[in-house]
């Protein structure tokens, strides 16, 4: 009887493991991702443009920084510098290299324990894509219904041959008709090509709120379809989606079977991290606790949060932390590095690269050594001054931002529960400090975070939880320390302590 029960449980377990999506998600430790704009990252052949082989050359750097995944911004052939308007979903833009270069990159990444996901813009293609050219030339083309047409002019539509096509972003990006079965078949083939033939580990899904503009229900339906297709092809693939919205809207999207959604409310000058670190905030610890609790109760338990402070579309982090206060810039990452989920860092963020305003300014060449050696600026970039030190100059400086990033990532990975556990915010009389109990089945830590610019002294046991050991700490000042003696914890400004029982 017992045996039969056991085998029944085993079969049930196997069944659950083979189902796509939700069941497998939460128990695993999420990966942390490094976002790369290939054109501006590293040039391997001296033509002035970053390329895939350049990324391969820098994989040790990415690994040593502590990242276990890279997100490559679009690499498929495209007429634009950013390549979010694709002309061939089955290739690599010659500016960046070849499919074999990508295969080489993937195998070198895997050898270092790094996963590779590609940016996948399928809301729209390029107006130069052969599908669209055919659809425009001939109203009887088999590709006509791959796009959305109107007999009259309307907002978000553009004229072509006496009819109007939907192109919500620009006229150069015609929206694909995602209700057309042939389009869905094509997208399924695209997924199969990259996941199975090329071996990428997943996708970053671009602009998912625009699939059916303003229609959450249909967007989620499409995301479920796409996620099921991808996980059927590769059960372990990872999908992270861009729904650039407020928290409740993101939570609604996260009910879909896509693994992860970017946590936009954490990011940028108006985000949770910036607000917590604002100069006038005398209750920075309480604020951070409230934001942590808000995320915990709003996002569905099965989703993997993907917090970040900057990406290729936003102003860079130093724009809101301010160059005059390097410790604040460090602490912005300290907060990010203690968050649940899989965090995302945009190339150059770790050395404090600046950039805001027009998009090209947010996407300039990575400063490895010297400003004279960076890749060619994206067309339209106007701010080409570098106000931070290069990777070379920060590498061996224990006080550098880069060194802090490495330490923060080391702390994060020393306690997998930080990434995968649930949070419970404990009360603390000193509102400059925040106590977060982070726990999963077999691990539990108490994170004590002092985001404030003051030193603090507290008795952690006053929270009602007993943690006896100071297991790790992280300070923005490399010469500072956290002390835990006779039940009292002394923390310098902008510091983090990890206590275990
Ligand atoms: Ca090149």
Bound molecules: calcium ion
Side-by-side strand order of the widest sheet: 10-9-8-7-3-2-1-11
What is the average per-residue confidence, as pLDDT, rounded to a whole number?
A: 94
What's the helical proportion of residues?
25-40%
Unreliable residue runs: 8-26
The total of beta strands comes to 19
Please describe the biggest sheet, giving its number of strands, its sense, and whether it closes into a barrel: 8 strands, parallel
Strand portion, in percent? 15-25%
H/I helix tally: 16
Instruction: State the distance separating the first and last CA atoms.
Output: 40 Å
Over all CA atoms, what is the radius of gyration?
24 Å
Describe this structure in words.
The protein is α/β, with parallel strands linked by helices and 501 residues long. 32% of the residues lie in helices and 17% in strands. It has 16 helices and 19 strands. Strands 10-9-8-7-3-2-1-11 form an 8-stranded parallel sheet, with helices on one face. It has a 5-stranded antiparallel sheet with strand order 12-13-14-19-16. A 3-stranded antiparallel sheet has the order 4-6-5, with no helix packed on it. Helix 9 links the parallel strand 8 and strand 9. Helix 7 runs parallel beside helix 8. The longest helix is centred in the middle third of the chain and has 18 residues. The chain is globular, with a radius of gyration of 24 Å. About 4% of the residues have low confidence. The structure holds calcium ion. The site of calcium ion has 6 residues, from loops.
